[in-house]
Each structure stands twice: as structure tokens, then as C-alpha cells.
Specification:
The chain is of the alpha+beta class. The chain has two domains: 82 residues, Aminopeptidase (3-Layer(aba) Sandwich), CATH 3.40.630.30; 46 residues. Helices cover 29% and strands 36% of the residues. The longest helix is centred in the middle third of the chain and has 15 residues. The mean pLDDT is 94.
Length: 141
């Protein structure tokens, strides 16, 4: 049986659930990002099971900061569906590309980026002074 999914922009009421999935984002940022439609949620059976959080680098370049889906819902194509929702939104706003990145020591995340359609666009070496770099990815919308 196919699960009933809902992909939508997050609302203020979602913040407690979002904080359970993403503990890095500060409260004040949740409010700003929700107001700017920079958080997308994935619901199954009226429960948030995934999210996308993106930023605008230099206020002009969309950057996929986080995509997260609860473990028991992974491998079902939901990240692709969420990404399509984001791409449609970004195109409607006039953007032509989406950037993302993953650490150089995260081959699984790099494989996901390539599998979903991102192309490698370079490496930023030693970005956090821990000898770990970031692989930058780009996808045309």
C-alpha cells in the first residue's frame, strides 16, 4: 500500500517537530526561514518525517543546506520528490541552479548528490580547520 505523502512549506506550528529532526538550527532562524519559505517538510500520516532547509548564498544563489528523511522512510524516492518540490519553487522565483555540498569524508552523501542529479563543481579544502574539505555540487533547475 502506497503511503499518503504531503510535501509543503513549513509553518510556525511545525517548529517543535522540526527541532527534533534538525537540532542545529537556532529558534530565531526557524522563524526567519519559515517566513522566507526556506524550509520544506515531508509528511506521512500527518507526521513530519523529513525536511529540506536551504539558504540563499550572497542573497542570490540557492544552496541546499540540509535534506533529512527519517531512517525507516529512506530509499523510497522521497528525497527526489522533495527536491522536485524545491526545484519547482526555485524556478518559479527565477533561479536557474541549486548548489549543495558534502564533506570530503562522506562518500555516501557524495553518491546521493550524484545519483539525484548534482554534478561535482570543486572542493573547498580544510573549510573548518579540521583537515576535512567540502565537495561542492551544482544542479541546473
Amino acid at each position: 500500500m502506497q503511503e499518503k505523502l504531503n510535501i509543503r512549506f513549513a509553518s510556525e506550528a511545525d517548529i517543535p517537530n522540526l527541532k527534533q529532526l534538525d537540532s542545529w538550527t537556532k529558534d530565531i532562524m526557524w522563524h526567519r526561514k519559515i517566513l522566507g519559505q526556506e524550509v520544506i517538510v515531508l509528511e506521512a500520516e500527518n507526521q513530519i518525517i523529513g525536511l529540506i532547509r536551504y539558504d540563499l548564498l550572497w542573497s542570490t544563489v540557492p544552496f541546499l543546506s540540509l535534506i533529512f528523511i527519517e531512517e525507516n522512510y529512506r530509499g523510497k524516492g522521497y528525497s527526489r520528490q522533495m527536491l522536485e518540490f524545491l526545484k519547482m519553487h526555485l524556478r518559479s522565483e527565477g533561479y536557474v541552479a541549486l548548489l549543495s555540498s558534502s564533506q570530503t569524508d562522506e562518500p555516501e552523501a557524495q553518491n546521493w548528490h550524484r545519483h539525484i542529479g548534482f554534478k561535482s563543481n570543486g572542493i573547498i579544502e580544510n573549510i573548518a580547520d579540521d583537515d576535512v574539505g567540502e565537495v561542492v555540487f551544482r544542479m541546473l533547475l
